[in-house]
Amino acid sequence: MADLPDGRHFFRGDDGYEQARAQTVWNARTPERYPDVVVQAVDADEVVAAVRYAAQHDMRIGVRSGGHSWAGNHVRDGGMLLDVSRLDDCVIDTDTRTAVVGPGMGGSVLAGRLDRQGLFFPAGHCKGVRIGGYLLQGGYGWNSRVLGPACESVLGLDVVTADGERLHIDAEHHPDLYWAARGSGPGFFAVVVAFHLRLYPRPPVCGSSLYVYPMACAEEIYPWARAISAEVDRRVELQIVASRAVPGAGIDSPSIVLASPVFADSEAEATAALALLDTCPVRDRASIAVPYAPSDLDTWYAGVMSNYPTGYRYGTDNMWTSATADELMPGIHRILETMPPHPAHFLWLNWGPSPQRQDMAYSLEDEIYLALYGVWRDAADDDAHGDWARSNLATMEHLQTGVQLADENLGRRPAPFATDAAMAELDRVRSVYDPAGRFHSWMGRV
Ligand SMILES: Cc1cc2nc3c(=O)[nH]c(=O)nc-3n(C[C@H](O)[C@H](O)[C@H](O)COP(=O)(O)OP(=O)(O)OC[C@H]3O[C@@H](n4cnc5c(N)ncnc54)[C@H](O)[C@@H]3O)c2cc1C
Asked: The FAD-binding PCMH-type domain covers which part of the protein (predicted)?
């Protein structure tokens, strides 16, 4: 019989169970779902033992790296919750520009280590997110419009399969499982114990532009952003964030912030790449207008995290679209009118048109990404704010081509996140590697 690690497994009813369960979820809105046992593994051998134990006791498994799944996808009723956040080793090879990194490594921590060695990886935009869940679902990170979703920089993975076997998977070894690992996200059907990553030289210049407009300019800003979307230099990530206040800028009124990182070879190139963003038709109404300023990742992380405070309750949803501004504006007005107080916010991300991607499960994206983040502190406001994101995007579903798994809300609003062909192939590969359904599938899909 396989053993569970002494002192690091908690059956329901044990002292420490609730703490071990709740601390796996970053969203303060901890799901009311209760696994039979929570197991905290510290290395790949313990992962093997835990998976074998689950197989022997016919338990299904939910895997957690950083617990930043908004929906707490890994927390399910019954079975095992396998916490691999302690697998956070990181070995960087500067000569080959590769790294072998555990799933529990924070993306921002990795980015910082690489930065100090003149290297770069398209890690996510927020602190706290671990690479385990981030890379499996795609990974929209720094300079991703140039480097691709981060899963395109995954050269291989070390995994533990449903029957407790350790495999290295890459383009030559188990290519079908490698294909599935790049884009299946919270429906992946093995445990990743390490990622083998391709690294990049650190771009010489990291800068940004910043414009803040009153929310009353929405009618001009979004149609303009849609009109220029295909022309925005791919080194520029145009993020438009609407919220009821911008405390970091001392603004206490509804505002639209255009904050755009750029990565380039020189300041002159960065400035030129950002120039298009200075052509907004209501530019003279901006309360803050900075066409270019040098920046760095620490500054960026601090800015982004002001919209994602820890200890708050979150309800998110999202959609990809290539709809016209005329089609989108009624829904956008409704989003802005019904928006809860800051830090709740609405993100418009200029993403496409995208180049041909690698052949992988990640297979659905579009020109514009819209994401709603309901954020509030008090559980008493769950009814008031909990459905803001889902309900608004449900009314815009006819304009949606799919959703990102990064901000998925599949349990409450099922939607396509991969092409039909990719879904069929995922089902086929799952039936080969996890025929008994040991690992939970996506919520909202039985
Ligand atoms: C504040 C915040 C900011 C974010 N910013 C970004 C961003 O900039 N870009 C972006 O792309 N995404 C972003 N996300 C989304 C985030 O990348 C995903 O939620 C991701 O899944 C989180 O990874 P995790 O390991 O922290 O979470 P987890 O909740 O641990 O993982 C999510 C799911 O992935 C699966 N999984 C995790 N680890 C493993 C493993 N080792 N083996 C097998 N399956 C596993 C499980 O099904 C799990 O339920 C953000 C999320 C938050 C909360």
From this structure: 31-202
Please work out whether the CB of residue 133 comes within 6 Å of at least one atom of ligand 1: yes
70-125 tens-digit pLDDT? 999 999 999 999 999 999 999 999 999 999 999 999 999 999 999 999 999 999 99
| Each residue's pLDDT tens digit, 173-211 | 999 999 999 999 999 999 999 999 999 999 999 999 999
- In the block, which residue shows the tokens 């420490």? 16
- CA distances (Å), origin 305, targets 19, 70, 324: 25, 15, 30
For the stretch 132-179, pLDDT in tens is: 999 999 999 999 999 999 999 999 999 999 999 999 999 999 999 999
Backbone angles phi, psi at 412, to 5 degrees: -105, -25
Is the Cβ atom of 67 under 6 angstroms away from ligand 1?
yes
| Domains of the chain, earliest start first | 9-83 (3.30.43.10), 90-202 (3.30.465.10), 205-399 (3.40.462.20)
Q: How many CB atoms lie within 10 A of CB 214?
A: 16
Give 248-261 pLDDT, tens digit per residue.
899 999 999 999 99
Other CB atoms within a 10 A radius of the CB of residue 90 amount to 19
In terms of Cβ atoms closer than 10 Å to its own Cβ (0-12, 13-18, 19+), residue 341 is: middle
Please give the average per-residue pLDDT across 280-304, as a whole number. 95
Q: How far is the CA of 68 from the centre of ligand 1 (A)?
A: 5
Q: Is 444 exposed, middle or buried (0-12, 13-18, 19+ CB in 10 A)?
A: middle
Buried b (16+ CB within 10 A) or exposed e, 385-418: bbbbbbbbbeebeebbbbbbbbbbbbebbebbbb
125 lines ligand 1 (CB under 6 A): yes
